[in-house]
Amino acid sequence: MYAYRKSMPRLNKHLDDKWVKHCQRLHKQRLKQMKPAIDNKPPPKFVHLAQNLKKQQMDEERYSQIERDNYLLLDKMSYIMTHPQLLDEKYMGPPVTYGKSLNKEYRKRELMRITEENLQILRRIQHKEPYYSHLDWEEQAARDEEYLRNCAEYPLMLPTTRGTKTMRQSQGYSEAPSFAVQPTPAPPHVRHKSAGKGVAVTSQHE
Predict the structure, then answer these.
(1) Is residue 20 part of a domain?
(2) What 3-state class would DSSP assign to 97?
């Protein structure tokens, strides 16, 4: 937004900023006063569709059938509880016996071996020193941020992490607010004069 304005010639930058803010305020006001061209209101409701009598009748019949089935099931359970002779062994078949597994001990030994190997791998991982140093990363990130601040004209909005936040506070940097960035006034126009191999920079007020 500010790059193209700085590239255009202006007689008075203060009046130009005031005019741009006035245009933006008018634009926002027009946006608030705009009315939609599409009707988004819900369609009207019809009485015969809102009250579906046939569906209500079917629901009542289904609930009645469910209550009847529950009553019959409760009656059967009560009869079984009051007549324990129905659960006598003579009405039941012989007890079922299942054979023992032939490879139970082998599976148990394999499980113990795999568990021991996993524990050994976990110990090696825990005692292994890291290859990368997070302190070097934080130092390099702080150095890169310092380069960005030296090159930038306006305040930067950099992402904050636990390490970089602590390092910024220790170096005394003040972070910009995350909701807005206030632009600083443009620097005075400079004039470059080439003198041999060097370049001399003079201000406009000279």
Answers:
(1) yes
(2) coil
